[in-house]
Structures are given as structure tokens and as C-alpha cells.
Write a structure and sequence with these properties.
alpha/beta; OB fold (Dihydrolipoamide Acetyltransferase, E2P); Rossmann fold; 3 domains; 6-stranded mixed sheet; about 25% helix
């Protein structure tokens, strides 16, 4: 039993105003260090909603009272769908087959992560079903400068390399697995982190869409040889809506495509939008095979989506 009046920790789950906080402790039994509590009403009055990943201070004013979330540290990053704070890595899961790869969703996720200084890592799953498509996806994203893992969660092929990457970068890691429904996120996590016992769902034969087995964002503590990391299985990333939510200005979008960066500022026109202008350095790089065509095609789709609604209105409705 924790006897201190104050204790630091990290929110790992929040449902219905009740938050589970993983507290700092020397114990190796994570689940002995979790306190369920509520937040002070002041956060509601200040329109602040605690999120998984938030680093917080809990306060227990007396033996007769329960711990409450008393303060929240400044966030290094945040996302709204789902609500997650202080992510360091976003593992973006793309299936090689069944269902067909949804590269627009993947590139939206990459762009949102890059805009928040969260490191995107690409995981191509179901490589055993379509090895050729798997390698095609690898080439697209390795060309863009991303770390890519091609693997099969079913057979286990390629999962050791991903596990090693997580272990090597685990100190201070707060990471989420994300991707289109049916990509196999929970199945993959269950193989890599077998002790987590995540629920998984089969893909519907008729629609090839995943059943909604994950209903809220929850962080799971995992101990590696280099430290403790917090890993999330997350619902709702397929709802990434650049029309409704404010991620960044349209002018900032090119900077969230890392393979564009070295060419920005080299275009003939200062305000080049990299759509079809003459003398565009980005378009020249695509023609030279330095940037994958699919990445530019999705850049154009995201740009169009951002421009559908005025920036001020998106900011007014909800800001990430």
C-alpha cells in the first residue's frame, strides 16, 4: 500500500472519468503500482482532459480520502483520435493483404506524427500472404527515410527484429500501434508482448474489415533489458480527419513529409505548393525516383482535405 501523500505516475487508461495511473516504484510487479482515481474538478473548469500518457502528480490529503490527480506535467505531444499524450513513437501498421493496404491512412498517420515530433515506424504485416506487396511497401517507406519492418504476426517471421528495436529504444518510450481496421495490430502486439493478453478479432470474411476489439486507448507497461516502455493498442486512428481537426497549417504540411524536406526552398517560386508548378524541386525529385509517387499523391489528397474548411474554423472546433 502506498503511504505517501503525493506520488508521481503516468496515466495508462481513462474511462468514464476514472483514471488508472502507473506510479513510480521499485517493484517489478506493475499491477501492484496502479492506482485508480479521479481528477480534480479544476481540470474540467479549465477544459483540460487527462489522457493516457500524461505524467501526473497524485495527492492524498488524508487517510480518509482517496488519491486524486492534482497536477499534469506539460505535454511534449498530443493526439485527439484517440486521446494520447507524450508519445515518442508511433508504430504504423500496414497490411500487405487482406485487407488491401490503405496508404492514405498510413500517410495521414505519418504526417500527424511528424507534425508532433513523434517518430513514425512502419510495420508491414501479413508479409507471408503477399511477399511481393510487402517488399513494394518496404521500398516506398525506406525511400522516404523511415524505419520499416516486414513481418508476419501469425508465423512470427520478422517479429524478432521489431522486438529488438523496441528494446533498444525502450527507455522513456511511450508508443502506440495504429493503422486501418483489420491491419492486425492487436494480434501483432499479442505476439510481441504475450503477457499483455490483448483481445484480438478476426477479419470479417465478407467485408475484410476488422472487428472493433479495442474500445479505448490503454497503455501497457513492458519491461525490457534497457528499461520500461509503455505501449498502447489504440482504436479510432482510422478516424483521422484533417477536415475537422486542426493538426497544422496547410503551409506546414510539406514539412511533415520528411522526403520533401531537403528539396523545400529549392523551388523556382517561393510559395510553391508542390502541386504542379514549373520548377518545383519536389516534383523533380519524384521524376528522378527520389520520392515515391504514392507519397506525393497522398500529400495532394491531404492538402485538399485540409483546405476544405478554413483554418480558423478547424481550430475553433477542436485543436490537437
Amino acid at each position: 500500500m502506498i503511504e505517501k501523500n503525493t506520488i508521481k505516475g503516468t496515466i495508462i487508461k481513462g474511462v468514464g472519468g476514472l483514471y488508472s495511473v502507473l506510479c513510480e516504484s521499485d517493484s517489478d510487479n506493475f499491477y501492484e503500482n496502479i492506482i485508480d482515481c479521479r481528477a480534480r474538478g479544476v481540470f474540467r473548469h479549465e477544459s483540460i482532459t487527462p489522457m493516457p500518457g500524461d505524467r501526473v502528480v497524485l495527492l492524498k490529503e488524508s487517510e480518509e480520502t482517496d488519491f486524486v490527480i492534482d497536477s499534469i506535467e506539460d505535454r511534449t505531444s498530443s493526439l485527439v483520435r484517440p486521446a494520447m499524450a507524450n508519445l515518442t513513437h508511433l508504430f504504423i501498421v500496414i497490411p500487405a493483404a487482406k485487407p488491401k493496404p490503405d496508404l492514405l491512412t498510413a500517410d495521414k498517420l505519418i504526417s500527424a506524427a511528424e507534425g508532433k515530433d513523434i517518430e513514425p515506424v512502419i510495420i508491414v504485416t501479413k508479409a507471408d500472404i503477399d511477399p511481393k506487396e510487402s517488399e513494394k511497401l518496404r521500398s516506398i517507406y525506406e525511400l522516404g527515410g523511415f524505419t520499416v519492418f516486414c513481418l508476419s504476426a501469425v508465423t512470427g517471421e520478422g517479429t524478432d527484429a521489431l522486438s529488438d528495436y523496441i528494446a533498444e529504444n525502450s527507455e522513456g518510450m511511450i508508443a502506440a500501434f495504429a493503422g486501418a481496421s483489420g491491419a492486425g495490430k492487436s494480434t501483432l502486439m499479442s505476439r510481441i508482448f504475450p503477457d499483455l493478453k490483448l483481445k484480438t478479432g478476426e477479419v470479417s470474411r465478407k467485408t475484410q474489415r476488422g472487428k472493433h476489439t479495442t474500445r479505448h486507448a490503454e497503455l501497457y507497461p513492458f519491461k525490457t533489458k534497457n528499461g520500461i516502455c509503455l505501449i498502447a493498442d489504440t482504436p479510432g486512428f482510422s478516424m483521422l480527419d484533417y477536415t475537422r481537426f486542426y493538426f497544422f497549417d496547410a503551409a506546414e504540411l510539406p514539412y511533415t513529409f520528411r522526403e520533401f524536406k531537403e528539396h523545400l526552398g529549392q523551388c523556382r517560386y517561393t510559395k510553391c505548393t508542390h502541386i504542379k508548378e514549373e520548377g518545383c524541386a519536389v516534383l523533380a525529385a519524384i521524376k528522378a525516383g527520389e520520392i515515391a509517387k504514392s507519397r506525393h499523391e497522398n500529400y495532394l489528397l491531404i492538402l485538399e482535405e485540409i483546405k476544405k474548411k478554413p483554418e480558423w474554423k478547424r481550430k475553433q472546433e477542436e485543436r490537437v
